[in-house]
Specification:
Blueprint lengths: L6 H4 L6 H21 L10 H6 L6 E2 L12 H4 L14 H5 L9 E6 L5 E4 H4 L6 E8 L4 E11 L1 H7 L7 E6 L19 E5 H4 L5 E6 L2 E2 L9 E3 L12 E7 L6 H5 L23 E4 L6 E2 L7 H4 L13
Parallel strand pairs: 1-4, 2-11, 5-12
Antiparallel strand pairs: 2-3, 4-5, 5-8, 6-7, 6-11, 8-9, 8-10, 12-13
């Protein structure tokens, strides 16, 4: 497959606030008109009304229910996204992800496990009590958000399938369907999207299997119906619309590391001391703010996760 290099698709600066806000105003007006005329329900994905009808079990507030910071507004969380399966523009996913069909859905869990299993999404909702986890999320391009995710620790699923002693890593594979995802038709990356974690990273309590945000089911453009969230790593590590989870002995090949290993390492921990080859990681812009703030080591979760990397050269294992 011919792969277009990230330099051709990530080098542009973040869309200017003026153009971004004007376009969003247009999209909101278009959405309002569509809903008023009944067009919102004609897509092959779930309509907003049908999606709202899917109720999540009540989520309890966890000990991680706040970072002490203002939440990023829902309208920004759902209209400013990186999700290349739906396009490379930040608002492409909110415009095209309505084609995704998040029900019915299943996730195959296989590889080095004693009990391989295929989980229906409804079964996954019942594996453990849901919690609201408010996490900082940092994009490698320099922007960040604070999002109230709904889910539970990924370790809850791991316990159900009983990994063998050979399971050293976990690989997540996302849906790749050109009928539902227009970005798949472009040879931007080597589809399907794949990400991975070391087992101790996957088992860490901060790593969650996520099924919602802001108390509702995940919007399509945010990774419906199920994704993983690892808050101390750059956002592209958090695979969306997962259809397969595989436990493996060798470090899995991941999409961005394959596309450009010099720029996107396997670990991809938020580290302000290690610059991206084409821009600094020392500062970030919180969506909704115009100034920049200092980037925190491990995205501010160093007290919880730094021990995972004790003795490692984090400039080598970036």
């Amino acid at each position: 497959m011919s792969i277009k290099r990230p330099a051709a698709i990530l080098s542009s600066e973040i869309t200017s606030p003026h153009l971004y806000l004007n376009r969003r105003q247009f999209m909101r007006a278009a959405a309002a008109f569509s809903a008023a005329t009944g067009l919102a329900a004609t897509g092959i994905g779930l309509s907003p009304e049908a999606r709202a009808a899917i109720k999540l079990p009540d989520a309890r507030k966890s000990a991680l229910s706040t970072t002490g910071e203002d939440l990023t507004p829902l309208k920004d969380v759902t209209t400013y996204n990186n999700y290349y399966e739906f396009g490379t523009g930040k608002d492409d996913p909110s415009e095209t992800a309505h084609k995704l069909r998040p029900r019915p859905w299943s996730v195959a869990v296989e590889g080095e496990v004693a009990k391989p299993r295929v989980f229906d999404i409804e079964d996954m909702l019942k594996l453990a009590p849901l919690e609201e986890r408010v996490y900082r999320m940092r994009c490698v391009e320099g922007w960040s958000m604070v999002i109230p995710w709904v889910g539970y620790s990924f370790s809850e699923l791991v316990k159900r399938v009983q990994p063998t002693s050979k399971a050293k890593y976990v690989q997540f594979t996302s849906l790749a369907d050109p009928e539902q995802m227009p970005g798949i038709r472009m040879p931007i990356l080597d589809w399907p999207y794949s990400e991975g974690l070391r087992m101790d990273e996957a088992m860490h309590p901060l790593t969650i299997l996520c099924v919602g945000l802001y108390g509702e089911v995940l919007p399509n453009q945010d990774g419906a119906p199920v994704r993983v969230v690892i808050p101390w790593k750059y956002g592209f590590k958090s695979g969306k619309s997962i259809v397969k989870i595989r436990f493996v002995e060798e470090q899995p090949k991941t999409t961005w590391a394959l596309a450009n290993p010099r720029e996107y390492g396997f670990y991809s921990n938020v580290n302000p001391q290690v610059d991206h080859p084409r821009w600094s990681q020392a500062k970030e812009r919180r969506i909704g703010e115009f100034g920049k703030r200092a980037t925190l080591m491990f995205n501010g979760y160093g007290d919880q996760v730094a021990s995972l990397y004790a003795g490692m050269d984090l400039k080598k294992y970036y």
